[in-house]
Amino acid sequence: MSFPRPRNGRPSGSSGSSRSSSSTDPLIASGLLCQMKDREKYIETFNFPYCNNVGKYEKVVKIGQGTFSEVFKARDKKDRTKLVALKKVLMDNEKQGFPITVLRELKILQLLKHENVVNLIEICCTQASQENKYKPSFYLVFDFCEHDLAGLLSNANVKFSLGEIKHVMQQLLNGLFYIHSNKILHRDLKTANILMTKRGILKLADFGLARAFSVPKTGQQNRYTNRVVTLWYRPPELLLGDRNYGPPVDLWGAGCVMAEMWTRTPIMQGSSEIQQLLLISNLCGSISTDVWPGVEALDLFNKLELPRDLKRKVTDRLIPHVKDTYACDLLDKLLTLDPKQRVDSNTALNHNFFWTKPMPTDLCYMLSQLTQSMFVYKESSHRPGHTRAAHSQQMARAKPSSTIVDVNQDRVF
Ligand SMILES: Nc1ncnc2c1ncn2[C@@H]1O[C@H](COP(=O)(O)OP(=O)(O)OP(=O)(O)O)[C@@H](O)[C@H]1O
Ligand SMILES: [Mg+2]
């Protein structure tokens, strides 16, 4: 009796169940071993197209940790003055290969090139080897920015003048105008995702939840997921279950960020979706068909018992912090309940806030006084008990609970 001989490392006739057992058939077992070794050799020597080896960079320090990635400050070994941010794609939970969310982020980042959007330089990977179990890691390589806005705001020594706040907001709205003109929604606007270079140039970052959008034809509706945007920055239409949303979702986030420039802490820190809606109602007034015609068509509007007859208090509540009346007026327009009436980025950029004295002021001088980079990750890990750790914001983004909690007291600034 003769056994089938392995050819090219592949055992022939191995499809029969009795013959496929490596433990019972030494020749087939050695064939499988050859096959595995061939595979490993192939993977080891495989060069991913358009992917440089990450070894060209030298990691300096870890600066961020998200659910989906780890971020490092790194230096180009050939040009040591060139700093980059390496965003490592976490593939631990991926059974189906490269995460689709990262592919989407990549595609969007390749499209967007603007002064106020973080610049993707390239994609790098590690060489597959026995040490990494033949699973290479992938990195998104960005121009390095010295700070993020969450880190800057959590440091009491960093003081923004009114002119500087205007410049931050002008750049934020410019970035939003650009991405919306390119039919992209960010869908995760928050201070940790807003970067700042040492020269005071703001960059929108983290396009991990971004997507392209289209304006539906009359009579048709988009059906996007509404489980996006970190809870504290999530607009009322998403909380009420809207799936046919658009750029106004990012403008609500811009309003929350703008208020935070003065309050230095997120203005509405709900711990569940319903609590977030209650906080919004307490600040912006009751959600009703009077102020928001058409809201009755949203899934949750009829299912939830939302507070009635609450007055809008945006200006009253914010003026003690903000002081400037033009700023308060713009905030009022950004934090408008009805997304159709909410100000868009172009109109916001024409608001008197940006065209009255003090005019927007360059941040370069103020930032040059800082001797250290400010990142929310570093801040929270170095200061135990820090209330606005990136972690809690991340939790809010990952899985908001739907428990109904009554909010008698606002947890607002
Ligand atoms: N180009 C960059 N320069 C400097 N720091 C950066 C850069 N990109 C990201 N970071 C830092 O790393 C952090 C995490 O990056 P990013 O938000 O892109 O990742 P993420 O995993 O999607 O985060 P999360 O899930 O927490 O939102 C940012 O908040 C910022 O502090
Ligand atoms: Mg992020």
Automatic annotation (TrEMBL):
> Which locations, inside or outside the cell, does it occupy?
Nucleus
Q: Which CDD domains match?
A: STKc_CDK9
Q: Name one GO molecular function term.
A: RNA polymerase II CTD heptapeptide repeat kinase activity
Q: Give the highest taxon in the source lineage.
A: Eukaryota
Task: Cite a GO CC annotation.
Answer: nucleus
Low complexity bias: where?
1-23
Keywords per UniProt: ATP-binding, Kinase, Nucleotide-binding, Nucleus, Serine/threonine-protein kinase, Transcription, Transcription regulation, Transferase
Pfam families attached here? Pkinase (PF00069)
For region Disordered, the annotated ranges are 1-26
Query: What family is reported?
Result: Belongs to the protein kinase superfamily. CMGC Ser/Thr protein kinase family. CDC2/CDKX subfamily.
Recorded protein name is: Protein kinase domain-containing protein
Organism encoding this protein:
Cloeon dipterum
